[in-house]
Amino acid sequence: MSRLARSGRGGIVLLVAGLVAALVLPWLIYPPVALDIVCWALFAAAVDLLLGFTGLLSFGHAAFWGGSAYATGLIVLHGGLPFPVAIIGGAVFAALLALPIGYLSVRLTGIYFAMVTLAFAQMLYFLANQWRGVTGGENGLQGIPRDLLGLDLNDPFYFYYAGLPFVLLGLAAAWRIVRSPFGRVLVSIRDNPSRARALGYPVERYRLLAFVLSAALAGVAGGVFAIGHGFASLDGLYWTTSGQVVMMVILGGIGTLWGGAIGAAIVVQLQDFLATAGFEGIGIVTGTIFIVIVLLFRRGIWGTVRHLIATRRTTPPLSSAADAGAAPAGSPEPAPAPASPRPAGGSPDAAAGERC
Fold first, then answer.
1. What 3-state class would DSSP assign to 343?
2. Which of these ranges, 68-77, 199-208, 271-280, has the smallest mean pLDDT?
3. Highest taxon of the source (predicted)?
């Protein structure tokens, strides 16, 4: 079987396994925690789309996660619209918010891009804190309903399955983006922006579009999170939210897209376990585990696993490599080639002429 066929079959197996895991998750753990995991998984995939495939590290994606949460809550509370429409509206708000921020940021790279996006996110945080008449200030938006066409979805178990399709569609969109020609151009820009620009690609325009798409996916995740918990708070806009999702991406593996889901599951489960146990130094434990994993798995958890699988597929076993150059068992050894006769009394040059 060809390597391409094996890779395609392996991808299908992983997609099916991920779908099954998402469907059975609220049966295995507390449903609100399960909802947190899938929402943060989509948020991590959105950040990885920008970091792993475009090469831009954003510390300001909390603006789109938290901004969409507020927009979704306001649409439901004051517009009276069902929450699916509100989630879409929150994602649109996040994309529109990303346009001016991205336009002013994508011309920078490295730490400069990270700091500029962080500054914009903190500006939005202070704006939400001061605009108490709309955002509720420090109290946030509370009592966001979950009704849909008369159905009562206040039970977290049932709402998990109502919000899961939005998360799955967001992950499918991220997967399609990175596998499209547009995604290939993003990778080329990440690897060598000067060469991509020389080939005629408008680098800043591609980066801006990737930034907006990443913000829209983060907005979907933030909207589902706000509806699922029934509130939107300032914590969603704070810089620690951006730092946490970046940590999830690094834990799972940068540029793997699905690794963020593993990082989200580890961080959310660990935080829930420590909070339930009454431990207050959650940041110390999560930070220590993050350092250990980064030191042991330089490519992240899923990135390391994928690298090991790829290495095993491409490297033949030592026994096979040795047998390839040996004669089959029981076969006669090949006779040595006869030496070229040298004419008697001839010179070396004459012998060379005879061989030619």
1. coil
2. 271-280
3. Bacteria
Residue 100 has which token pair? 């001016």
Q: Which amino acid is at 179?
A: R
Task: Write out the E strands in the chain.
Answer: 141-142, 231-232
**What are the tens digits of pLDDT across the range 225-277?**
999 999 999 999 999 899 999 999 999 889 888 888 999 999 999 888 888 88
Q: What are phi and psi of 141, to 5 degrees?
A: -95, 125
Residue 75 has which token pair?
């649409």
Identify whether the C-beta of residue 92 lies closer than 8 Å to the C-beta of residue 243.
no
CA distance 58 to 45: 13
pLDDT tens digits along 309-347: 778 767 655 444 444 444 444 444 444 444 444 444 444
CA dist., res. 260 & res. 42, Å (int): 8
Render 245-294 in DSSP notation, one character per residue.
HHHHHHHH-TT-SSHHHHHHHHHHHHHHHHHHTT-S-HHHHHHHHHHHHH
Phi, psi of 149 (to 5 degrees): 55, 40
| Alpha carbons 186 and 257: distance in angstroms, whole number | 14
CB 36 within 8 A of CB 225: yes
Determine the 3-state secondary structure of 148 from DSSP: strand
What is the C-alpha separation between 156 and 268, in angstroms, rounded?
A: 17
CA distance 4 to 148: 44
Average pLDDT, the chain: 83
* Among the listed residues 232, 87, 236, the one whose alpha carbon sits nearest the alpha carbon of residue 164: 87
